[in-house]
C-alpha cells in the first residue's frame, strides 16, 4: 500500500504522455508537432471501399433517375406540341365548313366515347347523314356536322375526333332488326 497515485501513474506511463502534451502546448497554445494539413484541420477519416462503392452507386442511380425524368419531360412536351398542331390543323380545316343549323326539328343519336350523343339536324341532313354523305366531328366539346370529305380529312389528322361517319357501302336492308318488328 505504499505507492502513491503519482507513482502508479508514472509506472503506467500516463504521466509521461501528459508531460509531453504540456510541453507541446506551452509555445503557441496548441500542441507542437506536425500540422494537420493545410488549414490546420484534422484529416477526414478514410472511407472504406464499401462506403465508396455505395456512394458511387447512389450517384449513378441519381444521375440515371435525373436523365429519365428529363427524357420523360421532353417526351411529354413533344406529345403536347403534336396535339396542339393537330388541334390547330383541325380547327383550320373546320372553319366555316360546319353545316349545323340553329333551327332544326330532328335529332340523330349516335354512340361516341362510350355514351349516347345527339346532334340536331333537319330532314335533308338526316337522310344525308344516314347515307354517309355527311359526318359528325367532335371539336371543342361540340358536335359539328360536316361533309364526308372533311370528315375523312379529320380522320387522317386525328381519328379520335371523328364521332360519326356512316359507311355508304354498308347493307341498309340488314340492319339487325327482325322484319316482324319493323313498323
UniProtKB/TrEMBL annotation:
Pfam families: DUF2058 (PF09831)
Domain of life the protein comes from: Bacteria
Sequence segments annotated as region (Disordered): 1-89
Compositional bias segments (type: Basic and acidic residues): 17-29, 66-82
Protein name: DUF2058 domain-containing protein
Organism: Rhodanobacter lycopersici
Amino acid at each position: 500500500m505504499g505507492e502513491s497515485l503519482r507513482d502508479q501513474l508514472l509506472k503506467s506511463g500516463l504521466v509521461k504522455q501528459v508531460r509531453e502534451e504540456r510541453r507541446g502546448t506551452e509555445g503557441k497554445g496548441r500542441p507542437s508537432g506536425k500540422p494537420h494539413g493545410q488549414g490546420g484541420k484534422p484529416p477526414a477519416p478514410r472511407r472504406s471501399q464499401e462506403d465508396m462503392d455505395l456512394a458511387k452507386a447512389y450517384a449513378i442511380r441519381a444521375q440515371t433517375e435525373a436523365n429519365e425524368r428529363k427524357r420523360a419531360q421532353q417526351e411529354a412536351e413533344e406529345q403536347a406540341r403534336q396535339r396542339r398542331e393537330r388541334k390547330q390543323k383541325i380547327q383550320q380545316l373546320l372553319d366555316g365548313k360546319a353545316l349545323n343549323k340553329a333551327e332544326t326539328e330532328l335529332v340523330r343519336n349516335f354512340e361516341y366515347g362510350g355514351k349516347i350523343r345527339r346532334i340536331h339536324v333537319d330532314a335533308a341532313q338526316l337522310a344525308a347523314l344516314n347515307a354517309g354523305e355527311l359526318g359528325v366531328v367532335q371539336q371543342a366539346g361540340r358536335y359539328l356536322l360536316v361533309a364526308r370529305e372533311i370528315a375523312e380529312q379529320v380522320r387522317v389528322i386525328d381519328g379520335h375526333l371523328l364521332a360519326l361517319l356512316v359507311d355508304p357501302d354498308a347493307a341498309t336492308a340488314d340492319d339487325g332488326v327482325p322484319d316482324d318488328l319493323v313498323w
